[in-house]
Amino acid sequence: MAPSVTSTVTVTEPVSVPKNLKTPSTSAPTRNCSRPIPSLPADLGLLDQIPAPRALRALRARQRRRHHLPRPPQPHHHHQHTHHPLAGTEVRGVQLSSLSPAGKDQLARLVAERKVVAFRDQDFKDLPIQSALDYGGYFGRHHIHPASGAPAGYPEVHLVHRGEGDESSKQFYASRTSSVAWHSDVSYEEQPPGTTFLYIFDKPETGGDTLFANTVEAYNRLSPLFQERLHGLQATHSGFEQAAASLARGGIVRREPVANVHPIVRTHPATGEKSLYVNPQFTREIVGMKKEESDAILNFLYSHIAWGADFHVRVKWEQGTVVVWDNRVTQHSALVDWENKQRRHLARITPQAERPYETPFQG
Ligand SMILES: [Fe+2]
C-alpha cells in the first residue's frame, strides 16, 4: 500500500463535533445507487446561474431552442468562478442546500464534467446532520466506511480529523518523504462512490489543501496504442490492508474487508468519458498478468497520474467551503503541510455509484 499519512488522521473514537452533528439518528435514506445520472432536465434550476463548461452551455442552448425557454438569469455580479482549463470550478453565490431536485441533477452533471467543484460560503456545516444525509442520499445510497471515525449514531458520515496539538505527522515524516497519496475513495467496494461531498469545520490558518487529478485527461494523454492495450484489463482492489492498518493503530473495523475486481478503464455513465481507474492505495494487481508485468503497468499509471500537474487542480479550503467531486473520474490526495498543530476537521458524505464498467476502445 502506498504511504498514507491520511490513514492515520481519521479518528475512530467519538470526537468533539459541532452541535448539529449530534442530532438523534433516524433511518438513513437509501436510493437506488446504480441509478444513472439523468441528462440535463429542460427545467433549468439554480445551477443555471453558474457559468458552465462549453459542452454544457451548448446543451442548454439546444434545450432552450427546443423548449422555447427564456434565457436563464445572468449571473449576479458576486458569482465568481475560476476554471482550470481541464478540471475544477469555483462557485460563489449558489447555496447548495437550496437546490431543487432538478438543480441536484444539474449539480451531478456539472461535477461529472468539471470533475471537482468548490462551492464557497455554504451553510452545509450548520445543517442538522440528518438534513445533510438526506441531501446526499439523493445521489445514491450512503457508503459506510469500514474503518473511519464517525459521529455517534451516524456511521454514514466519514470524519477527517486532526486534533489540535496532534504531532503524529512527525512520526510519519520520520520514515516518509511526502504525505501525497493519490487515490479514489474506497475503490475496493463493489460499488465505489460517485458524487462525493466534503465540507470543513476547522482548518489551519494556512495549508491542508486537497489535490485533485482528472483521470479522464490522464486516459486521454495516453497513446491510442497504449489505451487499446489497457481496454479489457481488470485489476483487483483490496480493502484488507486498510482494515489491518486500522486495527494495528487501535482503530475499528465495522465489517469484514472486501476485495473487488474492476476494469482499468472505466466509463462514466452520464458523460461517456473514459477514465483510468487504478490507484496505489487500493489497487493490487492486474488480473492474469505476472507480478512484474502487473507492477510495471500499474506503477507507470500511478506515476503518470501523480506526475500530471497539467491535469491537477488544488483546492484551498475556506470557512464554509463544500467541495464536490466525482470519484469515478478523479483521484485526490490530502496534504499534511502545516506544522502549527492547528485543528483540521472535515466531514464527508459519500453516496455510492454504479459498479464500474467499461465500454469498448474507440481509436
Ligand atoms: Fe480520500
TrEMBL record:
- What is this protein identified as? TfdA family Taurine catabolism dioxygenase TauD
Limits of the TauD/TfdA-like domain: 85-350
> What's the family?
Belongs to the TfdA dioxygenase family.
Q: What is the lineage of its organism?
A: Eukaryota, Fungi, Dikarya, Ascomycota, Pezizomycotina
Tell me which cofactor or cofactors this protein depends on. Answer: Fe(2+)
Example of a GO MF term? dioxygenase activity
Positions of the region Disordered?
A: 1-37
Composition bias, kind Low complexity: at what positions?
A: 1-18
InterPro entries, per the entry: AtsK-like, TauD-like_sf, TauD/TfdA-like
| Entries under SUPFAM superfamilies matching the protein | Clavaminate synthase-like (SSF51197)
Q: Which Pfam families match?
A: TauD (PF02668)
| Amino acid composition bias (Polar residues), ranges on this chain | 22-33
Which of UniProt's keywords are assigned here?
Dioxygenase, Iron, Metal-binding, Oxidoreductase
Q: Which residues form a coiled coil?
A: none
